[in-house]
From TrEMBL:
Natural source organism: Klebsiella pneumoniae
InterPro entries, A to Z: CdaR-like_regulators (IPR051448), CdaR_GGDEF (IPR041522)
UniProt protein name: Sugar diacid utilization regulator SdaR
CdaR GGDEF-like domain residues: 10-71
PANTHER family documented for this protein: CARBOHYDRATE DIACID REGULATOR
Length: 95
């Protein structure tokens, strides 16, 4: 975890599941569970963005950039939402 600014925190989590695979749906479920727990335990307002998964050199930086872009686009398109997922916004943009 890294505090980027007074209003931004970055959390890096292992991307692959126990089978060594990227499962975007599992990550979405985990984010939704986190939001539910945060709502139960306090009134802190926050947003979560999940970027894309990449492999190879620079993959963490690329994932971070897609998460930041996802947050920016998500806030513009769906300001009432508290979570934004790269896969959803990418598909919505293609529709």
């Amino acid at each position: 975890m890294a505090i980027v600014s007074l209003t931004e925190m970055v959390v890096l989590k292992p991307a692959l599941n126990s089978f060594g695979r990227w499962d975007a749906d599992d990550h979405v479920r985990r984010v939704e569970q986190l939001i539910a727990r945060m709502k139960e335990n306090g009134q802190l307002r926050f947003r979560v963005a999940l970027g894309n998964f990449f492999t190879g050199p620079g993959s963490i930086a690329r994932s971070y950039r897609t998460a930041r872009t996802t947050m920016m686009v998500g806030k513009q398109r769906m300001p009432e939402s508290r979570s934004y997922f790269y896969q959803d916004l990418m598909l919505a943009g293609a529709a």
